[in-house]
Write a structure and sequence with these properties.
The protein is α+β, with helices and mostly antiparallel strands. About 30% of the residues lie in helices and about 25% in strands. One of its GO terms (cellular component) is cytoplasm.
């Protein structure tokens, strides 16, 4: 049976770029993989055919030969840039083609973890740590210097973080040659796994340090001084670079992230830069007006003028008495909200005075008058 045109197999035009050929190959192997086509007996053959086509078209020399001579370029000893004529029956180099795509997909990731192969791998970076710190609203207002104790891994002093006794340098892993990964042939494709000898490090320690047992780090509590800036709020994150967990075998340390939680205050409620304070006032003060003293977050006092006839829920503003800005902007304000208080535990004389006042009161309660006027209109409409 005559072989199909390789460009037709991959579904690309003859002038397709290397990137277009690679993308087409990825789509094909994904769609035709035998594990996804168990009911299609032709899938495996088509899968191999795609691999054969890609092995030729991804190689510049082979592609040029194929474009000029077609399939005859790899028959009768013409070769395709490799000894022995290249394809060897259609399957011999498929695993190599699949491996190339695997490298394209995962090579960067593996490089980030290991820094490349050949014994020059970068030691593993330590993990980042999180510390939850609770502070009061007063501390968030003024800022503070806080000492915290953090349990973490630190570099081993006995081996200077190398993991080897006496500070000797680790050696390249003989199993993976420093790559941190090994490849195994399974049928017509290659599987890549973490090296079992070095656990992906690319290096081994022949004589492990007795203190850290080859890890290059030990567990130890550290006391750190943290600067908490004024204006922080719940959710603010402070980063201390290099104060996280020490890296394995001399690798760089991670970072420490401090997450701030500002506790609730008994007097003030925060809304961004502004503070709210609910202040109770007597019925007589709300009716007649007057001055009251209110606390401020800095520990001071503020005087507020209560207009006569004030109702519950009325708000007044003290400019610049809120929270300081953390990232630009101006200082917030303090909002005073009045809560008119109904007197309790009245004496007989007080009750008598209130009844006398009630009898004399005319047009003194506009909100009540409007409400009951609306109620009367509602009932009249229902009767109609």
């Amino acid at each position: 049976m005559a072989k199909r045109d390789y460009y037709e197999v991959l579904g690309v035009a003859k002038g397709a770029s290397a990137d277009e050929i690679k993308k087409a190959y990825r789509r094909k192997v994904k769609d035709l993989h035998p594990d996804r086509n168990k009911d299609n007996p032709k899938a495996e053959a088509q899968f191999k055919e795609v691999g054969e086509a890609y092995d030729v078209l991804k190689d510049g020399d082979k592609k040029a030969a194929y474009d000029r001579y077609g399939h005859a370029a790899f028959e009768g000893g013409m070769g395709g840039g490799r000894p022995g004529g290249g394809m060897g029956g259609g399957q011999g180099d498929f695993s190599s083609a699949f491996s190339d795509v695997f490298d394209d997909l995962f090579g960067d990731f593996m490089g980030q973890r290991g820094g490349g192969g050949g014994g020059g791998r970068r030691a593993a970076r330590g993990a980042d740590l999180r510390y939850n710190l609770r502070i009061s609203l007063e501390d968030a207002f003024s800022g503070m210097q806080k000492s915290i104790t953090v349990p973490a891994s630190v570099q081993c002093g006995s081996c200077d973080g190398s993991g080897a006794e006496g500070g000797a340098e680790p050696t390249t892993c003989p199993t993976c040659s420093g790559m941190g990964k090994v490849r195994a042939q399974q049928g017509f494709f290659t599987v890549e796994r973490t090296c079992p000898t070095c656990s992906g490090m690319g290096q081994i320690v022949k004589n492990p340090c007795k203190t850290c047992r080859g890890a290059g780090r030990v567990e130890k509590e550290r006391t750190l001084s943290v600067n908490i800036p004024a204006g922080v709020e719940t959710g603010t994150r402070i980063r201390l670079a290099g104060e996280g967990e020490a890296g394995m075998r001399g690798g760089p340390s991670g970072d420490l992230y401090i997450f701030i939680e500002v506790t609730d205050h008994e007097l003030f409620e925060r809304d961004g830069p502004n503070l709210f304070c609910r202040v109770p006032v007597s019925m007589s003060t709300a009716a007649l007006g007057g001055n009251i003293e209110v606390p401020t977050i800095d520990g001071g006092r503020g005087r507020v003028q209560i207009p006569a006839g004030s109702q519950s829920g009325r708000q007044m503003r003290l400019r610049g008495k809120g929270m300081p800005p953390l990232r630009g902007g101006g200082v917030g304000d303090m909002i005073i909200e009045l809560a008119v208080e109904t007197p309790v535990n009245l004496t007989n004389r007080q009750k008598e005075l209130l009844r006398e006042f009630e009898g004399e009161a005319q047009n003194n309660n506009p909100e009540s008058s409007n409400f009951f006027s609306s109620v009367k209109s509602f009932w009249d409409s229902m009767k109609g």
